[in-house]
Hints:
Strand content: 15-25%
Largest sheet: 5 strands, antiparallel
CATH class of the largest domain: Mainly Beta
CATH topology of the largest domain: Jelly Rolls
Amino acid sequence: MSFFEALWLEARAANTLWLLAMCVVALLTRRAVPHPHRLRVLSFWVVGHLVALGVDAALRAREHSAGNEFRTVAWVFGAVAFVGASMSVLFHGLLPRARVSLPRIVEDVLVGLLSVVAAVTVASRAGANLSGIIATSAVITAVLGFSLQDVIGNVASGLALQLDTSIDVDDWIKVNDVSGRVVEVSWRYTAIETRNWETILVPNLQLLRSPVTVLGRRVGQPRLWRRWVHFHVDWHHQPSEVIEAVQSAVRGAELPRVANDPPPNCVLLDMADTYGKYAVRYWLTDLAADDLTDSDVRTRIYFALQRADIKLAVPSRSVTVAQEPVEVPQVKTARQSERRKAALKAVGFFNTLEESEFDELACSLRYAPFTAGEVLTRQGAEAHWLYLVEEGTAAVQIREGGTVREVAKLVAPTVFGEMSLLTGAPRAATVTAVTDVECFRLDSSAFQRVVARRPELAAHFAEVLSMRSAGLQSAREGLDAEAAQRRQEVVEKDLFQRIRTFLKIE
């Protein structure tokens, strides 16, 4: 008998063609081998089967008696390979098409059990004597049981974790001092990726024995995680004032990764000797960006307190204080006043004011900085302030229906909000800081007092406002110079009358 004849006979007896066909189907099935190591394991059993089959055929061609042992090896390798290929087709081809998803460890356990059963069955059919192995298996099992009890415990724990779905892949968990996202639950360990770009392997048995916190999970709710941002303010400021200033700023910020429902809130947590302990509580939507989002919230808190002229508490410490000369506070106040007057004079809108009026308005200005992304005014809101931009850039946006579009850029030095302050109309647009903006807010009562004392200012302001309004409308409608001039005259008369009516100027 030739080698090829023997090889063909042995391949038929070992069902090699069926094995190869199943391996081809497994490779062609979509997502059949999602992990490279599974392909390597399957290849090992297939190659081992073919090599043993070839050696068996060569020995039988020479009528060598050792061929039976290699036939048994070839059959065992073939049976294990067939089980692996079949389970690959089932778990990664058929079940996904039927929209059935099972934990990975179920596949591993099933493949392992069926491989053992197939190997024992095939070896018995091939004539192998297993009585000696069975006789000594009890002793081997006892020894292995004591030496591998942790390994067996981890395997059982991994199976339990996946079957009861208490911890799933992509869950964010905290166990002892480890916090991160679950990326894999294997036989022995659970892999957790931390925010520091680390992967920590936690034994499954430890997960079952330790309390595990699943972050952001609540039945029937989206995945949100409540965060606390703490800050301290001294008792010079009432708690209601602090809470109102901070809470309104954070809620109106529309920060990325911060949920609108439930809305952020500010609470007074504790009362120390010289300061109150406050915290902003918000719900994080992206659990991987906790520090970055905390930083954004702290920035909003700082600017909100600055606008409200509320100072953060300074830690108490023992210091030696030297008496400050009397003229220093006076010099500081004078410099602040000059800065405010310079900001007013830099804007052409106020160029008809007298020096005393500049002094009066400068005293009424309140420092109000904004960070990039914050909303200075919102379309449709009631007007209480006129904004004087000293440094920075802001975008003017208008919402029409469901569309928001940018219509202008405000570059320092400039002023906005004067139309609402003079006519009582609601804000016509939303103004958002593009960069950090240094600006002052002018109270409506102070501005209106100056205009009421000098009615001629109403005509000047009506002229300036009409030039802006008519110019914008003319540009939109493509009017020529003569038509634009007529439009401005009509708008100016209308504005002048509205200002006089609103301010009750005779």
